[in-house]
Amino acid sequence: MRLDKFLVEMSIGSRSQVKELIKQKRISVNQKTVTSAKAQINENKDIISLDGNQLVYEKFTYFMLNKPKGVISATEDKEHKTVIDLLSNEDYKNGIFPVGRLDKDTRGLLILTNDGALAHNMLSPKKHVEKEYIAEVKGIMTEADKNSFEQGIVLKDFTCLPARLEIIAINQEKETSRVKITLKEGKFHQVKRMVLACGKEVSDLKRIKMGNLLLDKTLKEGSYRRLTSEELELLKKS
Question: Where is it found, in Gene Ontology cellular component terms (predicted)?
């Protein structure tokens, strides 16, 4: 790989900016200063440094984000804060995007990556990758509702695939429910619309699992971290 291409992929700067860094003799390869942007390097074996700080090559980046409410699942937006805006300058990398989407007022697990193949596998309708949510509901969810979910709820514009509804808790006094919902698809406002079709309303929604990957319970809302190698393998096996 050319040195300037490597530096651009590492989000050090634009092609012209990294060429200027090289010209300023701030880049070294295996502890030797390099002055040619065209220099060929082995990104997996050579030690490339900027101002003496080693740059570790990473073709793909994978973050687990605990998305807060009020942030949209997009790479950029003129009016609203996006999930990409939550990344630090050090962690931001060109091409990173959210795998799928969570509604603006939905919280929980969201994967950020620049690995298009992984995203395609996770989102492909043919794969039926499961997504698991915890929902706070205004109204009492019933066994009849569970059966409706299992049979596939009919909405105005499509019929949902069979889904699982687990009733976690019921508050008869407040007439509210806490439920776990597992889907094999993820259409616009689908969970809310399915609950509404049962005559109830979702007041809070949080995704806790996608495929085989569980949201880290210690990860605060608005925070993110890199996936471990074990978690990445779980995700790829989803």
Answer: cytosol
pTM of the entire structure? 0.83
Catalytic residues: 103
Domain 131-210, CATH: 3.30.70.1560
108-153: pLDDT as tens digits: 999 999 999 999 999 998 889 999 999 999 999 999 999 999 999 9
Write down the architecture of domain 62-125+213-237 according to CATH: 2-Layer Sandwich (3.30)
Q: What is the largest CA-CA distance in the chain?
A: 74
Q: How far is the CA of 118 from the CAs of 5, 32, 42, 61, 233, in angstroms?
A: 23, 37, 25, 11, 11
Fold: same for 62-125+213-237 and 131-210: yes
- Residue 184 contacts residue 128 (beta carbons within 8 Å): yes
